[in-house]
Structures are given as structure tokens and as C-alpha cells.
Amino acid sequence: MESLKKPNCANSSPLTPLGFIERAATVYANSPSIIYNHLTYTWTQTYRRCLQLASSITRLSIGKGDVVSVLAPNIPAIYELHFAIPMTGAIINTINTRLDARTISVIIQHNECKLLFVDYQLTPVILEALSLLPDHCPHPILVLIADDEPVSLPTGKFINTYEAMVEGGDPGFMWVRPENDWDPITLNYTSGTTSAPKGVVHCHRGTFIVAVDALLEWVVPKQPVCLWTLPMFHANGWSYVWGMAAVGATNVCLRKFDAKTIYTAIRTHHVTHMCGAPVVLNMLSNGERLTHTVRIMTAGAPPPAAVLLRTEALGFDVTHAYGLTETGGLVIACSWKKEWNRLPVMEKARLKARQGVRTIGMTEVDVVDPESGASVARDGVTQGEIVLRGGCLMLGYLKDPESTAKCIKNGWFYTGDVGVMHTDGYLEIKDRSKDVIISGGENISSVEVESVLYLHPAVNEAAVVGRPDEFWGETPCAFVTLKDGHGKPNPTGEEIMQFCKGKLPGFMVPKSVVFKDELPKTSTGKIQKFTLRDYAKKLSSTVKSRM
């Protein structure tokens, strides 16, 4: 047996998610692959378009190891580019469409992309970003995604349009397979809940693992109808961009959406699956009752139990999961137990708000003391840092070995998330380590305070951060938005604080409440707490808080 303990030429072909679309073009040839407004493509057409596009990209001397960036919303082009770019051997970098020109300029300079596809609505921001590049920094080649709009190329800026590159490509192009499992396929920048995004590099093997793993965990059947409410630029749509090709899904694309648009799409296309941050659940929770079940995968922040309850009462089936840009997709999920169906509704919602257990493709998950590395007690109370091991973890941060070494150590990836392990082995996030509020020596989970605020019938969204205080060090400061037409006069800050009393220990009750029309968010719906912390620091500190 010892002589057989090594790979051979037949069994060591590198894993890659690019093979999913090749197979889909055979198995699901004439089934719809993409629906967008009046446009519908089949899997045969989408595969051919990707090959043609890859062929045209290659003619621009783009190939193995080069970075190709994309700035576009959830339209067919960004879906196709997830296959076409790596089919050339290049690395796809999808850029957050809500970033400002300065940040985009920093990303372009950092990743040295040679080619950049830009949606026509985003040309002003990209041209401004390019104008901010240092003189020594080469500019990428620009291609305009015109969608179905009759637009002309800005003189001297764009070399071609997206559709012209598709039409001019070779449908018989032989796509470039990775030479090694560890060849990079994608570069993603962290989402911006902190002020310093980093470039996360993933390989073909890792994206293959997480894409298949995510389908298994969500029990996605063949040929579902997926509504793209999750930005495809966010961790490549949690790798479902590739995964949906594996099951021959119909991908319903939306350039932009609100609750009305989502409900219309669900009815029109009989949507079965959709993903999104808890902000999407909140958007849907005041809507209409469904005529068929729609399965939602939510992640990005712990959804309040009250929001889960309202959403599921309308007919949505919510699965709560956890992942990071550094994991390429979802690696922990609240796998549901049949016996929990007999519990009261609020208890079921509370259980579903937990992050859960490792997915099948994840090797190990633990909660440890960040100093000693020892596992914390499984009592649902003792907090520690969430650590991970598994094949879908990133290769590292681009050009940043120091940050890579800081989070990958002792055989684990240290997430920076604070959590507890319950007695049943299910994990629950309590906070990001930087979001824990320390007041008078007590650690306060902002997530726990927010979950109580969401119980208030007038509260639409809530975020809690630490506000500097001369006596306590810092105290909880709540930022809330209110529901439109909730039927009663708007509550005061004092009333919000009074509502929290009795539901929280005294030291956890917000000592100040700030009403906002809108909370600052990333493109994926995560609330930007660093912005709120800056705001809280500027609040008057003349009145000392007392508990």
C-alpha cells in the first residue's frame, strides 16, 4: 500500500469550478441560465458566450496570473465574467459598486489589474479613480458594459464594448485549465466594515470546495430559480455564482431592487432561492404573504430573532449561515433539527439566529481563548475567538504577509469574531472583537443589545456602538431608524431606553439613542460601525452617564 500513497497522472487533475458550466451546457443545454428584463439565455448560449469572451480577452495579451477587474451590478455580464476571466488563466477581481473613486483607485493600484470591465452607469467614478492614480502606475485597458443602452465610447478611454468582445470571440476557444489546485482564481477585497480593506486571494481548489459545500448545506435541488439579491461582487456571491451552474439554475438578475421589485420577481419567475444579508430580511419582513415557499440563505451579521420571525411568517424559509471573504463562502450553518419544529415560535427564531455548526466541507471549527489558544467551555456563555480549518480558506492577503501571518497561525485561521459554543455544539457569534463595548470593566455584546432593540414595534434598523464616557470608559450608544407608518407617534430616545430596561442588564441598556434616516452600510448590507463610532465620539460628552 505504501507505493500507492501518491497521486498519479489520472487522479490528480486540479479541481476547478469552471467545469460546472461546461457540464451545465450538456445536461441543461436548453434550460434557461440567465433572465434579465426581457432577455433570456440558455446554458448552451451562456457557455458559448463565456468561451467567446475568454477568447477576446486572451487576444488582449491577458493570461495566467494577470488580474482582470469588474465594476458592475448584478447583470448578466458580471455572471459571465466569473467564468470567462478565469477561463483565460487570469484572476477575477470584482469591485464593490458602492465604493468611492479614492478607494477604487487604491484597489486598482494595489492589484495592478491589466483589464477593467465597467458598467456604463459607473463610468464617472472609474474615470475619476483612474485620474487619482500616481503617474508611475499603469492604467488598465477599459471595456464598457453598455447593457442594453445605446451609448458611445468615451473618446480615448474605452477600447471596446462588452457585447462586441463577445460577438468577436471564438466559440471554439479551448479554455485554460489550472495547472495546479492552488492556482489563484479570484481576488476579493474585504467588504469595508473596517476602514482598511485587504485583498483576499482564493484558489481553484478552494472555490470548488466551498461552491459544492454551500449547495449541499442548503440542499439546493437541480434547476432551482435563484434571484440575485446578493451582490455577485461580494465574495463572488458566496461562490453561488459558480455553484448555480453546477445545478443548472435559472439566475434571475436585477440591476437594483427594493421590496416591491423582489416580490414581483418572486411571483413572475417562481423564485425558489435567494441570498442576502439580514437587511434584505428586514426589507421583506413587512411585505406580502407568499403563495409558495422561497428559501433564503442569510449571513453577514446575526439576524435579530424578531426579524426572522416576521420573515418566516410570510412564507420564507430562512437558513442562517456564517462566512467571510477569507473563506470564499459559507462555512458554518444553523443546520435545523426536526425536533425543533415542536418548539414555540420565539424559541425557534432564537435557535435559528445562531450561526450553527461547520458545513460538511469545513474540517474544524472552534471557539478559543485568543491568548492561550485553548477551547473555551461549551456553556453558551464563555466567549472566545472563532477559529477555522478547511480547504476553502484563502491563500492569503495579496502583498500583505504580515496580516496573513497575524490571522493564520497555530494551524488555524483566526476570524476576529467573538462567539460562544453552546452545550449542543452549535456556535453563536456575539460580536466582532472590535465591536465589543467595554463599560466599567464589563464586556457588552452589541449584537445582544441590537436584538432587543429590534423587538420594539417602531424600530426598523438598529446598531449599537461604544460612546466614550469619562466615568465608565464607554457606554452603549444606539443608532436606530424607524418604520414608516407604524401607526403610533415616533418614540423618544427615553422611551427606547425604557423599553430595553427589564430585557437587559442595566449596564447593557443604551445610555443614548440617535435617530437616523438611514444607517451607513456596505454594499452587502453590513452596517459600517466604524462610521457610527466616529459619530458617537463627536456627541456631546458634557453629561456623564450613570447606571
UniProtKB/TrEMBL annotation:
Residues 22-398 form the AMP-dependent synthetase/ligase domain. InterPro entries: AMP-bd_C, AMP-bd_C_sf, AMP-binding_CS, AMP-dep_synth/lig_dom, ANL_N_sf. Coiled coil: none annotated. SUPFAM superfamilies: Acetyl-CoA synthetase-like. GO terms for molecular function: (E)-caffeate-CoA ligase activity. CDD domains: ttLC_FACS_AEE21_like. Residues 448-526 form the AMP-binding enzyme C-terminal domain. One of its GO terms (biological process) is phenylpropanoid metabolic process. Keywords: Ligase, Phenylpropanoid metabolism. Pathway: Phytoalexin biosynthesis; 3,4',5-trihydroxystilbene biosynthesis; 3,4',5-trihydroxystilbene from trans-4-coumarate: step 1/2. PROSITE patterns: AMP_BINDING. Belongs to the ATP-dependent AMP-binding enzyme family. This is AMP-dependent synthetase/ligase, AMP-binding enzyme domain-containing protein. It comes from Helianthus annuus (Common sunflower). The lineage of its organism: Eukaryota, Viridiplantae, Streptophyta, Embryophyta, Tracheophyta.
